[in-house]
């Protein structure tokens, strides 16, 4: 990858006019760079250019408002379970949902909509999840990620809140009620962790040279597909208690994540924003001319997503897309 810095809308516009037929996002209120890749046909090289999206100060403001709310939601659902108030019912797909899920969903939606009335908010437990494609700011909420563990009395459940700007994950909060640990990150700030009343602790993923030692979470129900990914020269990472899989690299538990399962945006945006803040690349900024996944496309699920270190070879990512294409073709 070659880095082409763009530090202002003017420079971005000049770069656009000279090299690429792309649309540069412009908004006077936004000012923090995000990286998107483009290929220069004459050389075949892939460049990452910075496009101005949303200021770090604005994201910090939103984090400051959200932090106590996500903690309150996590603590209250735990209290509801303790008091036997988390009545369980089942959705049409057979998955469990509790009164605690519904309460946290409504609580967070109400509070965020009051604070930021212009933002779109999509919660897992919403009856209607439609929203206008191309929406600038979209929140995705998972009031209890890990409802099965919650129902069984386990501790592997989390409250997730993620914000996308122009389709890119830019702010993520991941709260674990059992340990009172909040993992968070936003564009221009990096990833950090707070446990209880302690001071924030910076989280930096170790970035070893890409090798066959790389441990990648591979999410797929198809054994043959998983074997093909492993055949690219990596080791399959194993389940992590205490956190969602995608943030494993921040704790030295893995090096990356790829999913071929149908996955909801509320499961992806928060951890993807945290990992993007830590410097990871993802499906929203693909190389090799692949179409980016944008979290404001009017949908709320995807059948493919990856989050990998910045030094991941383009050839590896291209192979992930080829495997996806192969199995999509076979399923038709």
From TrEMBL:
Cofactor(s) listed in the protein's UniProt record: Mg(2+)
Keyword vocabulary terms for this entry: Hydrolase, Magnesium, Metal-binding
Pfam families assigned: Inositol_P
GO biological process: inositol metabolic process; signal transduction
One MF term in the entry's GO annotations: inositol monophosphate 1-phosphatase activity
InterPro entries, alphabetized: Inositol_monoP_metal-BS (IPR020583), Inositol_monophosphatase-like (IPR000760)
Family annotation (PANTHER family): INOSITOL MONOPHOSPHATASE (PTHR20854), INOSITOL-1-MONOPHOSPHATASE-RELATED (PTHR20854:SF4)
UniProt protein name: 3'-Phosphoadenosine 5'-phosphosulfate (PAPS) 3'-phosphatase
Organism: Cyclonatronum proteinivorum
């Amino acid at each position: 990858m070659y880095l082409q810095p763009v530090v202002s809308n003017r420079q971005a516009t000049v770069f656009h006019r000279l090299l690429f037929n792309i649309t540069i996002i412009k908004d006077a209120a936004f000012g923090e760079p995000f990286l998107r890749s483009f290929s220069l046909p004459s050389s075949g090289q892939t460049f990452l250019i910075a496009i101005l999206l949303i200021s770090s100060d604005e994201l910090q403001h939103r984090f400051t408002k959200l932090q106590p709310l996500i903690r309150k939601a996590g603590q209250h659902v735990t209290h509801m379970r303790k008091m036997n108030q988390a009545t369980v019912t089942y959705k049409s797909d057979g998955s469990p949902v509790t009164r605690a899920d519904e309460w946290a969903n409504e609580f967070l939606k109400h509070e965020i909509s009051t604070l930021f009335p212009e933002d779109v908010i999509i919660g897992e437990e919403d009856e209607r999840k439609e929203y206008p494609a191309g929406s600038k700011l979209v929140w995705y909420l998972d009031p209890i990620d890990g409802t099965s563990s919650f129902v069984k009395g386990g501790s592997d459940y989390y409250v997730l809140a993620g914000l996308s700007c122009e389709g890119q994950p830019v702010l993520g909060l991941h709260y674990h009620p059992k340990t009172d640990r909040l993992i968070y990150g936003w564009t221009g700030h990096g990833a950090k962790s707070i446990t209880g009343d302690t001071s924030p602790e910076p989280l930096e993923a170790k970035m070893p040279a890409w090798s066959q030692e790389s441990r990648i979470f591979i999410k797929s129900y198809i054994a043959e597909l998983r074997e093909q990914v492993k055949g690219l020269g990596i080791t399959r990472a194993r389940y992590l208690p205490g956190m969602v899989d995608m943030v494993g690299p921040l704790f030295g538990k893995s090096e990356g994540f790829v999913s071929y399962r149908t996955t909801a945006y509320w499961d992806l945006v928060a951890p993807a924003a945290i990992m993007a803040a830590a410097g990871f690349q993802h499906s929203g900024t693909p190389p090799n001319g692949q179409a980016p996944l944008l979290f404001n496309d009017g949908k709320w699920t995807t059948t493919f997503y990856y989050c990998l270190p910045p030094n991941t070879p383009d050839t590896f990512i291209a192979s992930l897309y080829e495997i996806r294409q192969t199995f999509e073709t076979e399923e038709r």
